[in-house]
Amino acid sequence: MDCIFCKIANGEIPSKKVYEDEHTLAFYDLDPQAPVHVLVIPKEHMQSIEDEKSEGAAKHLFHAVRMVAKELELADGFRCVINTGRDGGQTVGHLHIHVLGKRSLKWPPG
Ligand code: 5GP
Ligand code: ZN
Known about the structure:
Elements: H1 4-9, E1 17-20, E2 24-28, E3 36-42, H2 53-71, E4 78-81, H3 85-88, E5 97-101
Antiparallel strand pairs: 1-2, 2-3, 3-5, 4-5
The protein binds guanosine-5'-monophosphate (5GP) and zinc ion (ZN).
């Protein structure tokens, strides 16, 4: 399958890793929107949160987010974003959680 994040997960495309385990990988976003901008992905391909498989992946993804927050010392807080589908602004069709931190983030988002 021609999926950028599958290629990052299997090492075909290099990435700057922050955390990795059997189920998940966390790496820095190429185009950071905050001083810390990390993407957490399941290693198994799934399109989005609309894929039923995402329910099983959620536990592992949340664990990875916690590990990233610990590793990058995000004790003052951070934001997780899961863009989904066209209206959600999803540009890569492999489920990912954006973890944004180290600046004060506005609400509501754009
Ligand atoms: P989306 O818009 O789908 O929610 O987020 C996709 C994210 O993936 C974007 O923030 C974009 O900067 C990032 N991205 C796209 N291609 C690559 C890549 O090859 N490497 C890394 N590290 N990030 C990427
Ligand atoms: Zn994929």
